[in-house]
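Handout, page 2. Input:
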Amino acid sequence: MLARMGEPAIEPLAAYPWATAPWEVKEHAARALGKLNDPRCVPPLIAILESRPLSEDAIEAAVEALGIIGDARAIPVLAAFARDDESVKELFVNQRAAAIAIGKIGGPEAIRELTALSKSKDPLDANAAAYSTSALGLCGPAAIPALTEAIEDKRLVERACGALLAIDDPAATAVALRTAEKHKQSGTREMAMKALIKAKEPGAVLTMIEIISKTRRDTVRRRKYMDGLGKIRPEPESVPALLSLLQKKDLCVRLVAARSLLMVGDASHVETGFDATFAAAGDNVGKEMEQWDFLYQDIIDCMRRLAPDAPETIIASIGHRSLKVVQSAARRAASLGDKRALPVLKGVISRLKARDEELHLMMVGGGDKAKTEVMFARRPVSVALGACLDARNVLSGK
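Output:
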C-alpha cells in the first residue's frame, strides 16, 4: 500500500520513529521504499538498518533497496553489514548482499570501501574480503587497478579473476588472462578459459589447448573448454604448433588440435587433419573415443566445408568406430551422391548387422537387468545401421 502511494509516502516514512517500530513494520516499509526507487528514500532506509530490533527479512529488503537506488550516502552503513562489525553482531547478516549493494552503488567511495574490506588479513574477515573482491566487478573499469592489486593475494586470486571477467572491458579481460595463466590450480585455469573464450582472441588457441591438456580428470570441465575453443578461429601462424600437437598421446589434445588446424581455413590441411583424426580413432577404442565423438563430427564438418569437391574424407569416415560419426558420415555421403561410398557402406552395414544380431541374442537370453543394459547398447547400433541403409538406398537409386 505504501508503494502505491508513491512520492507522498516518502516524507512520512522519513519522519517515522524507526527506533521504536515493530520489526514487521520495518520490513514492509523497506520493501515499499525500494519500490519507490527515489534518493529521498535513502535516509529512512538507513534509519531502518540502524534501528533495533531488526529481522533478517527487513535487513535483506533494506540492503537490496539501497543497492538499487545507488546513493553513496548508504555506503558506510552497508559496509558495517559487509564487515559484520560489532554494531551488527547480534543480527543475522548477509555479508554478500551488503557487498553487492556497495558494488551496485559504484563510484570512487564504493571502490575504496570494497578495496579496504578485501585487504583485511583478519581470519574473521575472510568472508568480507572474498565478497568485497567479487563485488568490485560491479564497479566497472574504474575497479581494474584495485582488482589487479587483489590478484596478488593468493586468497582472492579466483575471486579477482571472476570480478575482472564481469567487467566489459578488454583491459580487465587481459589482466584476468595473464593472472590465470600464471596459476596452476584448476579454479584459476577455469578463469583463464573464461577470459580466452570471452576475448575470442585467435592467438590464444594454443594456450587454450594447453589448459585442456592439464584438465584430464575433469571431463565435464574439459568438454566445456572444448566447446569454447570451437568458437575461435586460430591464426595461420599457429599451424606449425598445431601440427606438433597432433603427435601428442592425449587423444583429446590430438582431436582439438586437428579441429583447430582445419578451422584455420586452409584446404591444404584437410588431408593432414583427416589422417591425424583417424589415426587417433585407431589408437583409442571404447569409452574414451566415444566420449569425444562430437569432436569427430566437428572435424568432418570442417573437412566438408574446406574440401566440398573431395568427398573421400566423408566416405572414409563411414568406417569410423564411433557410431555417432558413422551415422553422421552416412547421411552426408548420401547428400553428396557419390556412389564410391557404396562399397564402404556395404562393409559397415554387414558389420553393424552382425553386431545388432549379437546384441539381440544377448537380450533374448539375459535377465531383466541384462536386457535393459543390452537395449541401451543396441539403440545406437540400430540408429547407425538405419542411417547406413538409408544412404545405400539413396545412392543405389532404390
